Amino acid sequence: MDDQVSYSTENCSIARTLQLVGERWTLLILREAFYGNRRFEQFQARTGVARNLLATRLATLVEHGILDRQSYQEPGQRARQEYRLTAKGKELYPILVALLDWGDRHVADPAGPAVLLHHRDCGAPVHTDLRCDAGHEHLAARDISPTPGPGARQLA
Questions:
Q1: Is 8 helix (H, G, I), strand (E, B) or coil?
Q2: 71 Cβ partners below 8 Å, 6+ apart?
Q3: Whole-angstrom distance, CA of residue 136 vs CA of residue 133
């Protein structure tokens, strides 16, 4: 960890990710997209976000390839847009599950969590878990050693 002190955090991937999806409304929009909601009105009703903020957040998610905008038209209605998760967007699911997991343990309603996640095939509860490429599972922060990567910039 001593090496970390001599490297800049200006190009930190966590900071860059938070700039894109770290805002409350964006995470709630993504939650709804993972729950199967695709339409502006659904996002607005389920999150309570102001319409102008929702439009801005959806445009940003589309611009960055997290959501894809597709046209649809109900019979007798004008054409509208719906938003579908892209492959890049679907990769954010473990982050949302980790937030849900942590929230269920530390800030859930006294009556219990509002949503439970279960594996469709076997019905078992779903949780996030850290593992390494060698197959070691249930890793904690103490088990992990951050080292400078190829994009690290040494401090002057």
A1: coil
A2: 79, 80, 81, 82
A3: 7
Is the pLDDT at 3 greater than 70, yes or no? Answer: no
- Tell if the pTM clears 0.85, that is, is over it: yes
The H or E element spanning position 19 is helix 13-21
Give the pLDDT of residue 5: 57
Is 42 within 8 Å of 32 (Cβ atoms)?
A: yes
DSSP 101-120: HHHHHHT-BTTB-S---B-T
Taking only the tens place, the pLDDT of each residue in 69-126 is 999 998 999 999 999 999 999 999 999 999 999 999 999 999 999 999 999 999 999 9
Residue labelled with tokens 């046209």: 71
| Phi, psi angles (nearest 5°) of residue 39 | -105, 150
If you ran DSSP here, which 8-state letter would residue 56 be given?
Answer: H
Q: How far apart are CA 73 and CA 60, in angstroms?
A: 23
